[in-house]
Design goal:
There is one protein chain. About 25% of the residues lie in helices and about 35% in strands. By secondary structure, the protein is of the alpha+beta class. It has one domain: Roll (Pnp Oxidase, Chain A), CATH 2.30.110.10. The strands form two sheets. Strands 1, 2, 3, 4, 5, 6, 7, 8, 9 and 12 form a ten-stranded antiparallel β-sheet that branches. It has a two-stranded antiparallel ribbon with strand order 10-11. Strand 10 and strand 11 form a beta hairpin. Helix 4 packs across helix 5. It is elongated, with a radius of gyration of 20 Å.
Length: about 220
């Protein structure tokens, strides 16, 4: 990796604009099928961790949060409700960059969830009603039957489009960033790595205000 693609010296006071640039760059280059894919880790019973890949659908760098969407009754939804903090990792192998995030989570305001749900394809909206996410399933055929049942109930058996309301158990999750680590691959595995941390103060049900960032370069 060229020197101008490593982290700057001195480190920026606010890392979120650089994160936003990296995120936009990964999407613009289209070097992998889902550049907005990230691993999200949660904590469940007995402090047992679990992780899965989800899609980051929104980054708000000026406030400092990202948004993904899920079934609130799923394993991750239940774990986030009980332990409202998460970690996330983006890894863009082709452009030699990685971003790690940590912070508290809140469930998104209803208008934010409604807006995104309405933008989804019809089958995805139907599927949000049909899938009892993370729960046992007798067979693939049983899932197909659940989908057909939802289509029938909503009057969509022959439709390719239609009005499907957002399920109350489905919506957005905001991860407010209080810790971020940026990593850039270096020659000879001498990578460039730095971590920033800040204190968040809760303002209301959906919003935090952030204090100043403290940045530290790390050994790779």
């Amino acid at each position: 990796m060229a020197a101008d693609e490593l982290l700057p010296e001195p480190l920026p006071a606010d890392p979120l604009p650089m994160f936003a640039t990296w995120f936009s760059d990964a999407r613009a280059r289209n070097v992998q099928p889902n550049p907005d894919a990230m691993v999200v880790a949660t904590v469940g019973e007995n402090s047992a961790p679990s992780a899965r890949v989800v899609l980051c659908k929104r980054l708000v760098p000026d406030q400092g949060f990202i948004v993904f969407f899920t079934n609130y009754d799923s394993r991750k939804g239940r774990e986030l409700a009980e332990h409202p903090r998460a970690a996330a990792v983006f890894h863009w192998d082709t452009i030699h960059r990685q971003v790690r995030l940590e912070g508290p989570i809140v469930f998104s305001p209803a208008p934010e969830s409604d807006q995104y749900f309405a933008s989804r394809a019809l089958e995805s909206r139907v599927g949000a009603w049909a899938s009892v996410q993370s729960e046992p399933l007798a067979s693939r055929a049983a899932l197909v039957e659940q989908v057909q049942s939802v289509r029938e109930r909503l009057g969509l058996l022959q439709a390719t489009e239609g009005n499907v309301p957002r399920p109350p158990h489905w919506g957005g999750v905001r991860l407010w960033i209080d810790t971020i680590e940026l990593w850039a691959e270096g020659a000879g595995r001498i990578h460039d790595r730095a971590r920033w941390q800040r204190t968040l103060t809760k303002k209301d049900e959906f919003t935090f205000s952030g204090g100043p960032w403290t940045g530290t370069r790390l050994n790779p």
